[in-house]
Amino acid sequence: MSKPHPERVLFLIDSLGMGGAERMLVNYLQHLDTNRYQPRVCVFWVRDGNPIAAEIEQLGIPVDLIPVSGIRDCKCVASLVGYLRRHQIGLVHTQLETVTVHGGIAAKILGIPAIHTLHTFAYPNATAREILRSKVTWFALRNFHDQVIAVSAAVGEYAIAEGRVPREKITVLYNGIDTGYFRRGSDIDRAAVRKAFGIPLNAALVVTVAVLRREKGIQYLIEAWPKILESVPKAYYLIVGAGPYEDQLKSLAATYQLTDRVLFAGARSDIPAILGSSDLFVLPTLDDVLPTVLAEAMASGLPIIASRVGGVPEMVEHGRNGLLIQPGDPAQLAAACVRLLRAPDEARRLGQGGLAVAEARFNVRKQVQELENTYRALLERQRSSC
């Protein structure tokens, strides 16, 4: 009996810059069962050189470009339909925004299943253009897609309430990570990592990994740092990442005369080593659907302090694997940091709790199995209706 051919799946995404959705796509492609599914990736434009494309191509997965000027560029639908036919695509999986509309329409024309992953709360700006864009996107999700994957229960409820997406179309599937990649091990040279940043080995090290935007709330932890130093004089704060708010954060640290204790590492590729050399992870975000970096910190065995916003409470259970605080409150941040930095037994217990949560909820291998099950159900339903 001949072996069945794998189903051809197209992952359609706006671009392949260094965003969270793009990195998550790589995680899933690394673990997808290629005996059952043959993946291909297509983008609509190039952002910052599309660096993630090289990582995907190294997996042996082709990456194509169909140039699109924006969500109003409907001419590309014909090009996309031809592309899907040419590559005999059996299922379309869209990510991010613009591809939602065009990918959904093309799949509907050809009668093939379409699935979309909803990564963000799509709050429209108070402009007619953005409101219209939001309405068009919700319309596409309701009418052109067979399934919507919400990366948190919170964003799923948002899609139901705000976008009127039918509840039966929503599947909650948390972002997954390779937990073994982040697990703290004996191969991490804690002393060398700290030396690279000028941090003493016996210092208390708090770390945040994030794109440096105002919405990440890092400014509030910088404001809290003088209070933290009163109780923990040997504390250092390492900010890992780059972004549009970096200069403002550096200026704030200088204003508080903290340039020797609040350090900026820039964008890094050695995140597991940095996490494994730290004592506490803090994400003072003002709004987040499901910050993958929290799962990475958990898998590293770090206790967590994070804001009680968006999907964060689905990741951090207060008292089990971290502490939840109100967003934008430097006093609460200071108190929570001091509490865990001065109570190593509690911090260790919370870190162990994080390991268990990461493995149970955010292991990419388990998440990919769930994704494949969703694909199979949609494809079987499509075949039965033919």
TrEMBL record:
Under the heading SUPFAM superfamilies, the entry gives: UDP-Glycosyltransferase/glycogen phosphorylase
Any Pfam family hit? Glyco_transf_4
Q: Which InterPro entries match?
A: Glyco_trans_1, Glyco_trans_4-like_N, Glycosyltransferase_grp1
User: Which Gene3D superfamilies would you find in this protein's record?
Assistant: Glycogen Phosphorylase B (3.40.50.2000)
Glycosyltransferase subfamily 4-like N-terminal domain mapped to chain residues: 18-179
| All copies of domain Glycosyl transferase family, residue ranges | 190-353
Give the protein name, as stated in the record. Glycosyltransferase
Q: Which organism is it from?
A: Methylocaldum szegediense
